[in-house]
Specification:
Length: about 900
């Protein structure tokens, strides 16, 4: 057989992915209860990053495992239209040509975005295919598809008619850069050091002033009152009095409101209802004017006063502070740590802003979504995320769903030009039901991107029609996603599916960790610490990348990525390939294949078969319980440490040309059987190399399935698990390891053959060493072995204890004991000097009390290490 000396993943991965797709293996096969996973749809603007690699590899491992169990398995893929992000990309392209969206108009911009989507929007899907994602691409969805758009309209109209969607003027989070509203969950907060400015507001009558503290002095131009706590004795006499608002000469009242915290600042709070959510509520309670002093770009408007109109909000801040200082009204400035909200998309500091927006009432939808988690119908893994979910759901706020951009699902609300009446409908009405007018125009705003995403479990399956897919695949099974979208997406999907389908969308939510660099920082383009996964795939292959990520990511924990962990995946792929190559190059010379009942099994055969069945049970349990890194580690340990390092090594003598035929045939059968079963265990994590090897084995070892991707996952056979065989083999392994360590102590070259004497403790051990002395001869380079319960310890000799037996290597004729003693004594003297120095240092109170804790710990560690070496060499000298 011609098998490449080195594993070349690129050619193999491309070949098998194309084969799987062509054969339709990614589609649900057969009848029975299906297993369904919904992909968290990546943004259409997306390019594969390490977070995508982790998320989609986890999903693919689960999907491939369930497919191999024979379940009709569906991994339903799709892409999100990503309203703000996608419009930003196209607007930046236009800006390079000196064109704005307003120059070309709404329709032309939307056309250009669709054109961009056709040209560039499929990049991340192609990249997911390179990673090995086995999605059913025939069902691929896009959140702006006609089918999903129809579902969006249906939901909006239904919720509006039920009184759960409403329009109103409220304070919302506003991004001046993206020029749109943001939901609370789209604002990323960070603690930042700012300033707290103390400003004097003079009395309108008489001398004196009150002092207010603010972090946003530019908003004072929109103040309409100063509030104090009604129980604060300092300001009882001021309630109802008037103050002069600095720089504007407007008079504003002092009002009493229990919201005011007496301990914050001076206990007097400026009230700006149009620019602060809490002030908005105070204003509602006291019927105060809502004075909007900024425009949508964060610039001051005419209401701010002629002196400030047109200024950027931060330039205005500096100007105000300068004027207040000049007028003696800036009392003092303090440093102040506070949470600052940033736009999740462009990182601009958001502005609380008063505007007309659309909202969903969330509390009525949240009740049942809380119940299904309380009852265990939906489980979060790890369990700690349940508390996070419940806290948010129990404190849920209404969801602002309107966005002031052009790309997205336009809100299905229509206004009569004649009488202003508003109609909410799935299709544009031909006339106004109020006045009969025929000129109606649609609301300019679009829906939040998440408004289409929260319908993902059922809109992707054809709802509102009652399709076969809905009946068969909903509820789905497991959702695998990142915890940062537990509110934005996971919770909302639970609410919408319960409301519109009266069922849960999935029963398990696995929340994985974040991919971080070696410094613990989240990987991001801005930090420049995120490698390109496609470069990695081109370099070492998708299998190596997938294995490295899974192997190093405990369930729900963050993964620290480095080139070192990638090396582990590449080395494992090479180890598997070399084992496969050795097997195939040796078995082709052995004609025929025995039936299973014709095998002449010896200890190593029975042991590896027993271990295979034990491992199959363990791995199956790990996959079932989503402990995927435990599965990876279990497979790695079995294939590398047990199959390659022990069984293959022990099989080599039986594969030689002059070896007995029965032994050759048995070794051939067991090697092929364990290798093909190992590839079944490994396939969910490393699909490409496992398919390549399994298909090659299939030509020599007949199996009923046509491809590994749809082959049966190993079912453990309890009858083949033999704990006595396992124990016997472990004793042989421990004995071989002990002899190897003794050889190392003696600095013997690998080719140097030695004699070994084993003093056993029981008859069963005598039989074991009599029968399988050849294992020790081969793997420990032993020329002669004698064993028994009454054998004498040879002198001089070095020895080791394994369980209750003793192993000796006679030194006569092997080394000169006197020369060896002299060498060891010289080494011992040097170590004793080093040990004395460390001991003196650790006995010195000055060192213990003044050195850094980590330095002291390092010295103690060194003391233990050197003392162990001293004891070992002393023991070796005594043996000599």
């Amino acid at each position: 057989m011609e098998i490449s000396k080195t594993y070349s993943p690129q050619e193999i991965e491309k070949k098998w992915y194309e084969h799987w797709e062509k054969k339709g293996y990614f589609r649900p096969q057969g009848d029975g209860k299906p297993f369904t996973v919904l992909i968290p749809p990546p943004n259409v603007t997306g390019i594969l990053h390490m977070g995508h690699v982790l998320n989609n590899t986890l999903q693919d491992v689960v999907v491939r495992y369930h497919r191999m169990k024979g379940e009709p398995t569906l991994w339903l893929p799709g892409v999100d239209h990503a309203g703000i992000a996608t419009q930003n990309v196209v607007e930046k392209q236009l800006a390079k040509a000196g064109i704005s969206r307003h120059d070309i108009g709404r329709e032309a911009l939307v056309d250009k975005i669709w054109q961009w989507k056709q040209e560039k929007g499929g990049i991340i899907i192609d990249q997911l295919k390179l990673l090995g994602a086995s999605c059913d691409w025939s069902r691929q969805r896009f959140t702006m598809d006609e089918m999903l758009s129809r579902a969006v309209k249906e939901v909006f109209v239904s919720l509006y008619e039920a009184g759960l969607i409403y329009k109103g003027k409220y304070i919302i989070n506003w991004c001046p850069r993206c020029v749109t509203a943001l939901a609370n969950d789209e604002v990323e907060h960070s603690d930042e050091e700012g300033k707290l400015w103390y400003i004097r507001y003079p009395y309108a009558e008489g001398k004196g002033h009150v002092t207010i503290a603010t972090t946003r002095p530019e908003t004072m131009l929109g103040d309409v009152a100063v509030a104090v706590n009604p129980a604060d004795p300092r300001y009882q006499n001021l309630i109802g009095k008037k103050l002069i608002l600095p720089l504007t000469h407007r008079q504003i009242p002092v009002i009493a409101d229990a919201y005011v915290e007496r301990e914050f600042g001076t206990g007097c709070v400026k009230v700006t209802p149009a620019h602060d959510p809490n002030d908005f509520d105070i204003g509602k309670r006291h019927d105060l004017e809502q004075l909007l002093i900024m425009d949508e770009h964060g610039r001051m408007n005419e209401a701010a006063g002629a002196e400030f109109a047109g200024m950027d909000r931060y330039a205005c801040r500096e100007k105000i502070l300068e004027l207040l200082e000049a007028q003696g009204l800036l009392e003092k400035t303090e440093s102040h740590m506070h949470a600052v909200g940033h736009c999740y998309r462009c990182d601009t500091v958001i502005e609380p802003y008063l505007s007309d927006q659309w909202f969903v009432k969330m509390q009525p939808l949240a009740r049942q979504a809380i119940e299904v988690v309380e009852t265990g119908d939906i489980r979060f893994q790890p369990e700690r995320w349940t508390k996070v979910y419940m806290h948010w759901m129990n404190n849920i706020r209404d969801w602002c769903i309107s966005r002031q951009i052009w790309w997205g699902h336009r809100i299905p609300a229509y206004y009569c030009e004649s009488c202003g009446h508003m109609v909410v409908a799935k299709e544009q009405p031909t006339q106004c039901p109020q006045c009969g007018g025929q000129n109606l125009y649609q609301d300019e705003d679009v829906l939040d991107t998440w408004f289409s995403s929260w319908l993902w479990p059922f809109s992707t399956m054809g709802w509102p029609d009652e399709t076969d897919d809905l009946k068969r695949f909903l509820p789905t099974n497991v959702l695998i996603t990142a915890p940062e979208i537990i509110y934005l997406w996971v919770a909302r999907m639970i609410m919408s599916t319960l409301y519109f389908k009266q069922m849960i969308p999935f029963d398990t939510v696995l929340l994985h960790g974040t991919v971080r660099d070696e410094m613990g920082r989240k990987m991001s383009k801005s930090l420049g610490n995120s490698p390109d996964p496609i470069d990695i795939i081109e370099s070492v292959g998708a299998d190596a990348l997938r294995f490295s990520m899974i192997f190093n990511t405990p369930k729900g924990a963050d993964v620290i990525y480095s080139d070192a962990i990638l090396e582990g995946g590449r080395n494992f792929a090479n180890k598997i390939w070399n084992a496969y190559r050795f097997i195939m190059m040796n078995i082709e010379k052995i004609k025929a294949l025995p039936a299973e009942d014709e095998l002449e099994l010896e200890l190593a055969d029975r042991w590896i078969i027993s271990r295979l069945n034990e491992v199959a049970a363990e791995v199956r349990d790990h996959y079932e319980n989503l402990r995927l890194n435990d599965a990876a580690q279990c497979i790695f340990q079995f294939l590398w440490d047990e199959f390659c390092s022990w069984y293959i090594e022990l099989s080599k003598d039986r594969l030689k040309e002059d070896a007995p035929q029965a032994g050759k045939l048995t070794a051939k059968y067991v090697l092929l059987d364990v290798m093909q079963a190992g590839m079944r265990l490994l396939h969910p994590i490393m699909p490409f190399i496992s398919e390549e090897i399994w298909q090659s084995i299939k030509a020599w070892f007949p199996m009923p399935e046509e491809a590994l991707i749809i082959a049966q996952f190993p079912i453990p056979d309890a009858d083949k698990i033999d704990l006595k065989i396992k124990d016997d083999m472990q004793l042989m392994q421990a004995s071989i390891t002990a002899i190897r360590n003794l050889r190392k102590q003696l600095n013997l070259p690998p080719a140097k053959m030695v004699k070994v004497v084993v003093r056993t403790a029981e008859k069963a051990q005598d039989q074991l060493f009599d029968s399988y002395a050849g294992y020790i001869n081969r793997l420990a380079n032993v020329a002669e072995i004698s064993s028994g319960q009454n054998v004498q310890k040879p002198k001089p000799a070095v020895s080791a204890v394994v369980r209750n037996l003793e192993i000796f290597i006679p030194l006569a004729g092997l080394i000169d004991p006197e020369v060896e003693k002299a060498r060891l004594n010289k080494q011992l003297d040097k170590l004793n000097q080093e040990l004395a120095g460390i001991t003196r240092k650790l006995s010195n109170p000055n060192f213990i009390n003044h050195a850094k804790a980590e330095v002291v710990a390092k010295e103690k560690e060194k003391h233990t290490e050197v003392k162990t070496k001293v004891d070992l060499i002393t023991s070796q000298i005594q043996d000599l």
